[in-house]
Fold:
Amino acid sequence: MTGLSRFSLAGRVAVVTGAAGLLGRRHCRALAAAGARVAAVDLSAGDAEAVVREVEEASRVGGGEEAAGAGGRAAGFAADVTRPEAVRELLAAVLARFGGVDVLVNNAALNDKVEVPRDPGDVLRFENYPLDRWEAEMRVNVTGTFLCCQVVGGEMARRGRGSIVNIASTYGVVAPDQSLYARADGTQTFFKSAAYPASKGAVLALTRYLAAYWGRAGVRVNALSPGGVENGQPAEFVARYAERTPLGRMAAADDYEGALLFLASDASAYMTGANLLVDGGWTAW
Structure:
């Protein structure tokens, strides 16, 4: 296998958690277009099935041998990744449907977002941040990743082959710049919480641990750390983010597809324990 053929996922099965999210649905489409059979996993069965319909429609519109072959091979699964029994049931269902699993993309996460703030204002300050919100983010972002790696990654290790891609964040590497969230008049009602950066830092540490633990078992474990994606945020936030980014813009939702395919496929066959930063240069200065 040489050249572009190393990016092919033909004949492989990819599991994507948080599939109905902004990036999760793009991950599913990219993997299917590369030839994978995709298990789209989300908390809601209806949301997961909606992603499957998007994948199949994109496959029909996109054309090409691998893309066309993906149609009808995606399937939706409902699972709460924070519950061990739910993740074990998910694995059993994926194996029953597809016969194996080769790629795991741990994308499910909770995150306070400036475009859809739940409790803006003093509640989001570190001094006041609710313990239940902290624990909820840790359960999904860290425990959910741990359980999926343990159960699904364990199956890969048993079979002697697999690629795990843990979706982390630039905020797992550098601290949030709270000034980005200020209004034009200098007032501020949104603060990025400590929970998301702390959880993504833990995901990076788990990635390195598992890369060392499973290296001889044929399972590669890497992280993909995206930068911010433009998605209806306030105009002043988008402008500040772009100004702070060397490439001068926020990411588009499809800016991570190439990086994901690289990590999932044999194109990165000699890569494990790494964190691939795709952030427009955000962490370069």
User: Anything to note?
Assistant: Confidence is low (pLDDT under 50) at residues 64-71.
